[in-house]
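job 3f2a | input accepted
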Amino acid sequence: MFIGHFAPAMVAAAHPRAPGLGTLFVAGQLLDFGFFGLALVGVENFRITPGITRMVPLDLYDMPYTHSLLGSAVLAAAFALLIWLVTRNRTGALIGGAVVLSHWFLDLLVHAPDLTLAGAPPKLGFGLWNHPLIEMPLELGITFGALAFYAIRTKAISPQSKYALGLLAVLLLAMQSVNWFGPEPQSADMAMKLTGLIAFSIAALAAWWVGRTRRLKQS
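job 3f2a | predicted structure (219 res):
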């Protein structure tokens, strides 16, 4: 799952005490920020194995810290603590931590069995990457359903800013299209890892910009 990880962020951003949309986009992909960062230095590892699933050729055989349930919970708690230290907003901190943790449960739906509870077998994953006719509409549905929810609960602060949300939607769709239909990576090299980190960062920056252009509607 790629852009589907931003769905909890967009739903959460409609809460009046939530952190900003950009912060929540970082939260939604924090586990993958961590994974690709650790993969760059060889702490966690993956390889390209064509056909390991029908949709994704990534053999995610070694990610005990970022993609175990325990590791995800630790990252969620750390992110929540950071938000609280910066803002003293307890509700916002809990929301941010929950968005971080949502990543593991969404991955559980799509991954082949490569997730763990605490870094060791059993390995878990329901494998929807082997069922594109289910996974693709599911990912698009939760992402753009969440985007619609955020759009309904917020309003543009100026006539000029009303297009920002549409541009975010186009960006997310373009990123997912490249992920699904672009050339398969040939190796798990540094360029691929940096590309992932850059893509997550661009999405978060776009979300930060959108968050600055919109305000919650009065209930």
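job 3f2a | The longest strand covers residues 58-62.
job 3f2a | closed
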